[in-house]
Amino acid sequence: MINQAATAFEALVARRGGDLLLLVDGSLRIVRAGLEAAELAERSADALTGMSLIAAFGSAPLDAIARQAAAAGEVVVGEADLGHLGERSFMVDAVPLPGGGLVLSLHDITALRRMERVRRDFVANIGHELRTPLTSIKLLAETLLSGAVDDAETTRDFATQIEREADHLAQLVDELFDLSTIESGQSRLEIESLDPEEVVAACVERIGPVAERREVAVRRAPPPAEQARALADPARLGQALINLAHNAVKYSHPGGEVRIGWAVAGSSVRFTVADDGIGVPVSHQQRIFERFYKVDRSRVRDRDTEQLGGSAGLGLAIVRHIAEAHGGAVGLMSEEGVGSTFWIEVPVARSA
Ligand code: ADP
User: Fold this and answer.
1) Which residues contact 175 (CB under 8 A, 6 or more apart)?
2) pLDDT per position as a tens digit, 70-83
């Protein structure tokens, strides 16, 4: 029976993908370390045998949990960050054995903790984005109510500002809904075979009035010699391109030019939106498609953000999710002060 139990323990210790296991004696020296526990300590299982727990893992919380269980003679459960720079989180069960010593079972909760962090950041970001326009609306309304404004022109100006802030709020809410439906995969894509020229033409037409107000020219890039069709949901692809076009106009200088075009890239159709605007510093290019990520807001003059709606840092996150929902990708090439080319790829359907 004892032998069978030892064999069972060995089988558990040698397996991958389960909890990490360690057997320690009464003075917390390692008797037997599982394969993955040894990997976590960056040593071989043999090298770990005889080492103290604290020397092997360098984790005071892990040592404290084990010590407490050994002293009390009962199960102790706790949490410890382990591994190189403590980048992995574990739920630790320390179970005392009748003959002395302990079995330590380590359950990896790194992914759970990361998700909790993402959720916390998300809520904090939304709170921040909602608060800014709400504060303005409240201040403007308070000033109007106090009776301090007595001429019609200023009153109208205040009301216009309130309306604009309310529009920002509405846009933010729309973007959040878009992002969550696309992210959750709830909205099914209605894939059709599309003529890329028509997709580009529709985008140029839609962005026209906005660009005009900003004194930016929008043109179609010359079509490639190759014939191809794109396999995409027209509404979603259109939304992604208009987001890119909006940004291109927003971050252009007056008198600038935005070019929208397409090309075949391997098994994809790549739509491009190019501008000769302010560009994206290299240090920001990696993270620019993350939700709520913004490059320094002071780069855009207030007049522009007023005309073009708020800047919540959600536009590019929506573009990325749309691309990924199609099995495609997004990217950019940009040089600060020279301009940017953003692209989105969706699958190609070569015409006969
Ligand atoms: P936002 O609502 O802030 O425009 P986005 O997700 O659309 O959010 O863009 C994220 C950031 O990327 C922006 O804050 C801006 O700094 C930068 N960016 C996006 N497009 C361009 C562009 N065409 N040229 C320069 N910077 C851009």
Assistant:
1) 312, 314, 315, 318
2) 999 999 999 999 98
